[in-house]
DNA sequence: CTGAAAGCGCTTACAG
DNA sequence: CTGAAAGCGCTTACAG
C-alpha cells in the first residue's frame, strides 16, 4: 500500500497540514516538530503524490513540449537541452510531436484543454503559429524556439542568423573566393531572408557583388540542394563558392558538384548552416546553431515565467559560430 | 474561469455522476439524458481536468520513457515511434534522460515514487538494469527496448541481431569476399555476442574461416572504429571485408582505411549495423534495425498491459534488413 | 506554531 | 436510470 500524507501525519503525531508545511518548506514550523516529521518521511520513504499535489495546487510541475518531429536532425538536441534544464528544477517534460498531422494536433489540443501541463515549449510545426498564439493569449505560458524567424508575440529564443551568414561570407572572401552562389531555404522563412541579407551585405561591404542568377531557392532538403546546384551549373555562370542555408542542402550541393566532376573545396567551396552531426562526418564547413543551448535557454525562460517572473519582450538571442572544416 | 463537471451538470440539469457516466461511456444512461449532456459538453467546450481524473482514478493516462540521451543517433526514432503509438490512444509521454548521470536518475526515481506515470518504456541507460527490474518487481508496468541483448525479466522488444549478421556474411561472400575482419562493440553486450556468432556461423556454413586475430573490440564510437582498423592493418593479415557492429564504428573503419590509402569498396568492403541517417549519406551498406517500429511495438505492448492484458513472456522480435549501398 | 475543515475536480460504490 | 455522498491525496485559508 502506498504511504500517504495521512500516515506520515499519524506517525509523527501531527496534522496533515503540518506535514504539508514541512514538505513545502513553509516558515513558522517548530524546529523539533519539523525534524520529527522529516524523520518519519525518511523512515517510510514518503513521496507526495504528483497527482494530488497537482490537483490541490492547480499546477503540475510539468511542461509540455511541441515539436514537428523527432526525425528532424537537430530536434533531439533541442529537446535534450530542455529536458536537462527542466529536470534540474524537478519539472517533467510531456512530449508532443505533429508526426501524424492534424490528428496529432487534435490530441495535443485536448491535452492543453485538460491542463495536462503548466507551460509550453514549442518548435513551430508548419502552419501552427496562429494556433500557438491563441494558446498564449488564453493564458498558457509559452516560449518558442524559433528556428525560422517567425517572431511570435511571446517570449522566444533565436540565433544570430544574419551574423552567422556574415561570418560565412567574410571567411570565404578571406579564403580567396570571389564568385558566389547561394542555395536558400524556403523564401517565406524569416531566417532565410536574414541569412541571405547578412551574406549579401557582408559581401557588399567587401566589394563583392553576387549575380542574382546565382541565388536559387531550396527547401532545406538534400534532394533540392542537389537539384538547385544542377540549376546553378546549368546557368553557365562561374562560381567558386556556395553558401547553403542549411547542412542538408549543403550535402546535396556537395553531391551534385561531385557528380559533375567539380572538386570540393578546390574548385568550389561549400558552407552550410546548423552543424548537425552529419556535418562533422562529411567534414562540412558550416555555421553552427547552438541547438542544445537554445533548448536550455527556452526552458529557463519558461521556468522563470512559471515561477512568476515577467518574461522579456524581446527574443533571447544566442550566437552562432563558424565551424571551419574541409569543404570551405 | 475554467468549466468544471459541476457546471456541466447544472446546465444539463443532472448530477455530476451522470455527466461522469456519459463522459466515460458507461452503460445504463437514458439516451435522451446522454444526448442532452453531450450537447452541453459540446456547447461549453468542456474537457475533464487530467489532474482530477488522474487522482480519482489512480492513473494518469501518461507513460514515462527513460532513455540514455537524445543525442545518440537513433534514440529520436525510437521515441518518435513510441510517441505516435501512445498519442493515438490519448496517452501522454513523459520523457526522462540520464544525460546528467546520477542526478538525472535521482530525479527520475522521485517521479516514479510520485506516481507521475502509469507505466514505463525504457532504453536501458548504462548499469541500470537491476534498478529497472526493481521497479518492475514493485509493480510498475515496464517494457524495454532492448538494444544490447540484456534479456530482462519483463516484456521487451528486440531485433534479429544474429540473423542480421548472418545476412551480412552471406552478402559479402556472395560478392566474392573471402578474408574477413570484424570490429565488434563492447564484448559484454549480448547483442555483440549475437552479431559475432551469427556472422561467424554463417561464414562457417559457407566454408569460410575467420582468423581470430582479425576480430577486434570496439566500443560503438567512430574513434574506436578507426583505431581498431589501424590495429587490424598493423596485424599484417590480409582482409577484404570488415563487418562493424554499428554504423558509427563502420564510419571510423572507412576513415581509417581511406587514410591508409585502401579504397572502399574496391580493396575492402565495409558493412555496418543500425542504419542511422548518416549511413545513408555515407552510402554505407548496413544491417537496418527498425528503430521506429521498435518504439511502436514497445508502446503497444505497454498499452495492452495497462489495459489489463497479460504481457508475453518472450521478447517481441522485429526483423532486421540488409541495406546494400556503395561500401559493401 | 498548529489543527480542523473546506476545497481542488473528478469517480465510484451505495441506494433507490 | 439517477443522485447524494464519500473518497482520491494533497494544500490553504481560517482560527486559535
UniProtKB/TrEMBL annotation, chains A, B:
| Keyword Acetylation in record | no
Which UniProt keywords are listed? DNA-binding, Transcription, Transcription regulation
- Pfam families recorded for this chain? LacI (PF00356), Peripla_BP_3 (PF13377)
List residues of the HTH cro/C1-type domain.
4-47
Which SUPFAM superfamilies does this chain map to? lambda repressor-like DNA-binding domains, Periplasmic binding protein-like I
A single Gene Ontology MF term assigned here is: DNA-binding transcription factor activity
Annotated HTH lacI-type domain ranges read: 3-57
Q: PANTHER family per the record?
A: HTH-TYPE TRANSCRIPTIONAL REGULATOR GALS, LACI-RELATED TRANSCRIPTIONAL REPRESSOR
Q: What is this protein called?
A: LacI family transcriptional regulator
